[in-house]
Amino acid sequence: xxxxxxxxxxxxxxxxxxxxxxxxxxxxxxxxxxxxxxxxxxxxxxxxxxxxxxxxxxxxxxxxxxxxxxxxxxxxxxxxxxxxxxxxxxxxxxxxxxxxxxxxxxxxxxxxxxxxxxxxxxxxxxxxxxxxxxxxxxxxxxxxxxxxxxxxxxxxxxxxxxxxxxxxxxxxxxxxxxxxxxxxxxxxxxxxxxxxxxxxxxxxxxxxxxxxxxxxxxxxxxxxxxxxxxxxxxxxxxxxxxxxxxxxxxxxxxxxxxxxxxxxxxxxxxxxxxxxxxxxxxxxxxxxxx
Amino acid sequence: xxxxxxxxxxxxxxxxxxxxxxxxxxxxxxxxxxxxxxxxxxxxxxxxxxxxxxxxxxxxxxxxxxxxxxxxxxxxxxxxxxxxxxxxxxxxxxxxxxxxxxxxxxxxxxxxxxxxxxxxxxxxxxxxxxxxxxxxxxxxxxxxxxxxxxxxxxxxxxxxxxxxxxxxxxxxxxxxxxxxxxxxxxxxxxxxxxxxxxxxxxxxxxxxxxxxxxxxxxxxxxxxxxxxxxxxxxxxxxxxxxxxxxxxxxxxxxxxxxxxxxxxxxxxxxxxxxxxxxxxxxxxxxxxxxxxxxxxxxxxxxxxxxxxx
Amino acid sequence: xxxxxxxxxxxxxxxxxxxxxxxxxxxxxxxxxxxxxxxxxxxxxxxxxxxxxxxxxxxxxxxxxxxxxxxxxxxxxxxxxxxxxxxxxxxxxxxxxxxxxxxxxxxxxxxxxxxxxxxxxxxxxxxxxxxxxxxxxxxxxxxxxxxxxxxxxxxxxxxxxxxxxxxxxxxxxxxxxxxxxxxxxxxx
Amino acid sequence: xxxxxxxxxxxxxxxxxxxxxxxxxxxxxxxxxxxxxxxxxxxxxxxxxxxxxxxxxxxxxxxxxxxxxxxxxxxxxxxxxxxxxxxxxxxxxxxxxxxxxxxxxxxxxxxxxxxxxxxxxxxxxxxxxxxxxxxxxxxxxxxxxxxxxxxxxxxxxxxxxxxxxxxxxxxxxxxxxxxxxxxxxxxxxxxxxxxxxxxxxxxxxxxxxxxxxxxxxxxxxxxxxxxxxxxxxxxxxxxxxxxxxxxxxxxxxxxxxxxxxxxxxxxxxxxxxxxxxxxxxxxxxxxxxxxxxxxxxxxxxxxxxxxxxxxxxxxxxxxxxxxxxxxxxxxxxxxxxxxxxxxxxxxxxxxxxxxxxxxxxxxxxxxxxxxxxxxxxxxxxxxxxxxxxxxxxxxxxxxxxxxxxxxxxxxxxxxxxxxxxxxxxxxxxxxxxxxxxxxxxxxxxxxxxxxxxxxxxxxxxxxxxxxxxxxxxxxxxxxxxxxxxxxxxxxxxxxxxxxxxxxxxxxxxxxxxxxxxxxxxxxxxxxxxxxxxxxxxxxxxxxxxxxxxxxxxxxxxxxxxxxxxxxxxxxxxxxxxxxxxxxxxxxxxxxxxxxxxxxxxxxxxxxxxxxxxxxxxxxxxxxxxxxxxxxxxxxxxxxxxxxxxxxxxxxxxxxxxxxxxxxxxxxxxxxxx
Lengths: 290, 309, 188, 673
Prior knowledge:
Helix content of chain A: 25-40%
Number of helices of chain A: 9
Oligomer: heterotetramer
Largest sheet of chain A: 6 strands, mixed
CATH topology of the largest domain in chain C: Rossmann fold
Largest interface: A-C, 66 and 60 residues
Distance between the termini of chain A: 58 Å
Strand order of the largest sheet of chain C: 2-1-3-4
Strand content of chain A: 5-15%
Helix content of chain C: 25-40%
C-alpha cells in the first residue's frame, strides 16, 4: 500500500502525470479514486475489495480522461488484459498512460466495506487465475496473495447447463433474459464497449428491438456476446453491475471457452497478440458445415 | 480366443467336405473359435436370385437373423457363393428400409441387420502374421496360382473393398505367409463357368481349361481356390476336359485352408487332401519337408477312394 | 403436392430464409434452376455479395420475423471470390452456432453449407434436407412469440437470487425442468 | 414516398408455365410504394424494355423491380433501360422468379406464392436503394497470358496485333504445348509442326510480346484493370543473352538416359536439353534433378562434371543462376493452361479417380496412350516416324485402339466426353495404314462423335477407305501372353464376346486439366468444377469469361477442346481484352463500402478483415487543426464490395452500397410472418 502511495506521490509531484486512477476507501467500501494532488496519494488503497476494472475509464468516450490529460492507472493483472485490448484496438495510445501494476491475490465479488477474502467469497473469476503479476505495466507494486485454486464455479454451471436438453436451456435463459430491463449498465461498465453510437441505439435499421421483452433482450445479448467473442477479459463487471442479477458471466465464459477450444486463443495482456475474430487460419475446424 | 460366427453352407458339408475339415484344422492354430449358426438354412445361391429377388434376400437374411440372435457380431462364410449371397443381402437391407421391413415381416422376428459378413480371405488376411508365425513347415518349393473367381472380391460395394476388385493380392499374401510361392498369371479373375457346371458342361470345360492352361504356363504346381464351385469346376471337371481333348495334364486344385494347414504341418489326411479328384500326391511330395506327421503313404489309398467318388 | 418432400399430416410447412453468397451458391442455385432440379418450395433466398457479409443479426431478425429455419451458404474455402470472406464467416458462425445452442436454440434449425457454382444438385439436397429437418422440428413459435410470453408469465419476483453474491439463481439451475417464474410457452 | 414499378415477366412459358404471373403483378399492387405493377410475356424484349422506360417517364418511378430471370442474366439489360429513361441504374433490381422459383417447382399455387414473396422482398429492398454512379478507375493496358500452348499463343498474338503489350508465361522450357507433340492433325492431316512453328516464331519475334518461358505465376493481387502479377522465372542454368542455341552442350552431356517428357517417356534426353528441335525459345535447360553436378551439390559433394560448360564457347552455362521473381502490372489475364491425359495407373492424383485394373494398371508393355502414339508417328519422334513397339522395336501388325478410357465412365471419375478422341483415333488408324500397309487397326468404340466440320467424313474415310475395323463394344480385360496382348471384349452389334490378339494397344485416355490448376485458380480467385476445369461465366452467353472480372479462359483448361475450339476461344478472349483496353478508364460497379464518419469508433476491425487493404486511417481534425479522432476510410478504387467489413463492424458504421443493412433488413422484414 505505502509503496503505491510513494509512487503516486512521486509521479504527481514530478508532473509526469496529471492524475492517478486508483481506489480509495468510500462510505460503503472501496471505490475508484481520481488523485490529482501529491498529498492526495495517501487516499490510495489496494486490497481484495478493489474489484472495479478501471480500464473502462481509459476509453476516449469517457469525459474523465479528456479533462485530466495524461494519467497513471493502478491495474490488476486482469484489468491489464482490458488495457491491452484498448491499445490493440487503437483506442488508447500506449504512451498516453502510465500503468502501475499491482500483484494481486484475488478480489471478492462486491466492494462492500465488511467483505473478507475467503474461499467462499472470492470472485469466481479469480479461481485458478493464471497470472497474478501482470506484464503490461511500467511499475509493479505490492505482493501477490496465494490466490485460489480453480476450477471456476461458472465453468461447472456451464457444463451443467450444456448437459441439459435444449428446451430446458431455452427455458432457463427465457427466465433470465426476460428480467433484463435494457438499462445497458453492462455496456457502460465494459471496457471493450467503447463505440460512439452502439448497435443497440442504431434505429435505421433497428436490429435490436428496444422494448425490454425477451425477444428484444435476446437480440441484445446475442449481439453483445458476439461483439465480445475473443475480446472479453472476464473482469466480471457486467455481471456485478447488473441490477437484475442476470448471470451474464455464463454467456461470456461460454463464448470464451468456444474461442479457446476452436482457435486456441485466450485474452492476453500483450497488445501485439491479435484477437481471433478478424483473423483466420486455412484449416479452421468446420465440422458443422455440410 | 476370438469368436466368429460360421456359416458352412451346403457344399462344406457335401461335395467340398475337405474345405471344412481343413478350415476346422487350422482354426485352432489361429486361436479363433468357430460358432456355427444353429439351424442355418440354404443361402439361396444362384437359383434363388434367378427366381425372385425377395427370396434371394430373405433366405440369407434368415441366417443373419439367427446369427444376430446368437449375439454374433460377425459371420464367416467360407464358400464364395454363400459369402456373396449373405453379404449382398446385408448390403441391400441396409440400404432399403422398405425391404428391411418386408423381410422382417416374413421372418417374423426383429432383425436389425447388425451382423457383418466376412469372407475367408478377409479372415485369413487379418491373421497373416499368425499364419507366418505358425508356418512350421513353410511350403518353400510349392509354386501356386491363386484363383479368386468372380465372387470373392466383387462387387466392391458389397465386399466393402477389403481387396482391389481388379488387382487383388490377399490370397497371394496368405500363401506367401504359408511359405508358398505365388506365380504371376493372368486368369486370376476369369469365370470358371460357375453354376453352368451341369447345364452347359461344354462352357465349363472351355473356360476352366483356359484357366488351368494359363496356370500351367505360369509354372504353377497347384491352383489354390477358396470356393467349392470353382474347386469342382477346376478339379472335378479335369477328367471331362481330358476326354474332350481340351486339357492334357493334371493340375492339383487345393483349398486355401489346405495350403495353410500344410504349412502348419497338419497331416494331409486331417486336411482332406485325399478327397480331390486330381491326386494331390505331387503337392504332398513337395510339401512333405520336415513337417511332423506328413506321411505320404496314407494318401495312396484315400486318393484311390477319392478317384472313384 | 410438389416435388420430393411429402407434407406431414399436420400440414405444417416451415418457412426457411437462405442467406447465400452471390458468386457461388446463388449461381449454384441458378444452375439448379437451369437444370430443372425439383426441390421444396419453402426456401426464400436473400442474396449477399459474400458469406463474409452475413451478420448474425440477420439470423436473429429472421427468427424474430417468423422464420422456422435458416440456411447460410457460400463458396468453398479457398474458392471465395473475395479471397477470405468465407474464412471470416466460418469463424463468426462457429461461435454464433455454439452461442445459440447454449441459449437453447436447436442447432439443426440453422444449416451451414459450402455450395459452389457448379454444384446445382448439392444445393437441391441442402434445401430438401433442411426443409425435412425443420419440418420435423415444427414451427419455431418459441422464438417469435417471446414478446407474448412476458405478458402472461407471473412477475418473477423469485426470491432466491436477491442478495446472493453471484446473482445466480442456483435453485433455478438445480430444479430439473423449467425454472420457477419462467415462461409457460403457449405452443401454437 | 417511393414510387416503385413492378414488371413481372412470363419469359415465354419458362416462368408463365408454373407461376401465375398476372397474380404476382396483382399481388404486388397493394404493397405500399408500388404505383405500377404489370406482367408481360417477354420483359427483356425491346417492347418489354420500352414498357419500363414509358412507365418510368409517365409515372415518375423512383425504383424498378423486374421479376424475371437471375440478375446474372439481365440485370445489366434492365439497368441500362432504366438509365435510358433517366432513372439511376442502381434503383433497378431483379427478382429471380425463374431459376429460383418457376423452374424448380411444379405446384403452381405454391410457386406463385413464392414468386410474390421473392418480388416483395426485392420491392422492399429497392425502397432503400440510393442512386449510385459508376466508379471510374485507370486500366493498365497490358495483358497476361498464362500457358504457351496453341490457345495461349493465339491469344497473345491477337492481343499484340491489336496494339497492346502481352506477357506470355509458359511453365515448360518451350512454348508449343501438346500441339507440338502431335504428328498430323485432324481432319486435314496437315503436319502439326508445320502449322504451329510459324506461330511460335511469330510470338518470339513480336515486338509487343514479352515471353517468359520456364516460368510460373507466383501470385496475383488486385482486380480488373489493376492486377499486380509476380512471375517466378525458374533458373535454366543458361544465360539467355549469351546462348546462341548451338546445342554443343547437349551433345557432351554424359547423362543421356533420362525419359524425355516431350516424347512421353518413349525417347531419351540428356540432363541439359532442348525439348524438341523447333523449340521456342531455342535455349537449353538444365534438369537440376538429373544433372550430376546438382545431384552432388545436393549431397554437399564438390562439383565434378562440368562438360556442358566446357563445351560452351559463349560461356553461357551458369550453374549458380537462381530463380528470379518479376512483378508485372497487367489489366487482364487469359488462362490457357491446356490439358493433360488421364493415366490408368493404380495411384491417382485425386481420390475420386480410379485406375484401370482391368488393363493391368498400365504395367503391360506395348499398351500406350494417344500422345505416345503421336510421338511414334512423328518424324521428330524417338522412332523417326516409324510405328514400332516400345518393348522390342518390332513393327506391330495388329493394333487395337480403345476409345473412352476414363471418359464417360463415372466409376473412374470422369463422366464427361473428352470430345477429341474419336477423331484422333480415326487419324491414328490412317497414319498406321499409311505406314504399315498390311497392318490391321481395330477400334473398340461406344459411339463415334464427329460433330466438327469435315469430322464425319474424316472418320468415314478411316473406316471405308483406310480399312479400320470398328467394333462397337468395350474391352473387359487385357493381359499379356508371351509377346502378344490378349484382348477380351464384346461386340454389341454381333452380340458375341470377342477374344483377339494384339501387338500393340493404344488407349484414348480422357482429357483432364493440368495438375495444379486448382492452386492457380485460387491465386486468381476464379472458380473451378470438381474435375478442375475453370468455370466459365455462362456456358452459352459468356463462354470465354470467368466470374472474376478481367480474367478470361481459353482452350482445354475450361473443358475438353480440340485445336479449332482452342484457337477460336483464344481469339474471343483477345477481342474481350482489346474491348476492355479500348477506353482509358474502366467503369466499375459502385457497390463499395463507405464509412459513416460520425459513428466510427476507430477500432479498425474492418481494416483487419479487408482482403484488399482498402481501409485507410483518416484523421479528423478540429478547427485548430489538431487531430481529434482517427477513423477508418474505405478507398473506393480498391474496395471490391465483399461487405465483410460491415458484418464485422460492431457499431455498423460502414455500409456496403447496394447491400446496406437497411436493404437486407427490409428484405428480411418482407419475408416476415
